[in-house]
AcrR family transcriptional regulator
Amino acid sequence: MESTTDGLRERVRDILRRHPRSQRAFAELIGLEATKLSKSLAGTRRFTPAELTGIAEVGNVTVNWLINGSDEADTVAAAPRRSARTEVELTHSQDAGRYQQILDAAWHLIAERGYHSVRIADVAKACGTSAATIHYYFPGRDDLLTETLRYSVRLAFDRQVAELHMIDDAHERLLRLVELQLPTPGLLRLEWSIWMQVWNESTLRPELRVLHTDSYNRWHDTIAHTIRQGQQQGVFAETDPDELAMTLTALIDGLGIQVMTDRPGRSVEGMHRTLRDFVHREIVRP
């Protein structure tokens, strides 16, 4: 559960003040009962990680800002690089919510249908708007793919910060990080779909590789940082953290692809078991 600090509550209130709808309507948007939101704001209840992630998404902020008051604050996960183009548009647009609506629709369509099967017209239809509006935010169809990857990375970062920032034990945190990467049905499986398509496109199109590398480095650095903390705590073996992170992320990728493609004998449960065994065998101090 989440630690509810005065600063966190005040930042949530700030989002509510800027939100065009009522507090009750805001609560409904994040799937939270209005009474629970009121209790959390009063300090008699803690926000859950899922609620913090929802507040951040609807409020167009990061969970890191909600918890620590700054996007740049050092936290449990490496921060993703921001899109300068997107930041300018969101800063100067009178309808930042429209951008988020378009991005969310594009993200779901690409994850569910595949990048090459999604047209600008499909995104416009899903949003109930025109193709011209889509092009205002995403000049070309390739921009949809790159921004949906950034969106996936941002979602993962917010989820990791919300879930992990109260876990001091590096061993427990690493195991939770692994769980957060499993392609379980729903949001995580859709994120895996986006990643697999980006891997494929990056193989064929060199111009996408810089974004892919930056995004992947964030994940690698998060794992390596956690391993270093575990070594400082004396719970992890004194092996090169970057080497361990490289091996663990490669194992996650390979098993995830096999689960996503329904290879016989592969399952989320089996993937989880194999990864836990690897952590205990290769990373935890004997």
Notes: The mean pLDDT is 88. The CA atoms of residues 27 and 168 lie 30 Å apart. The domain at 1-73 is CATH 1.10.260.40 (434 Repressor (Amino-terminal Domain)). The first helix runs from residue 6 to 18.
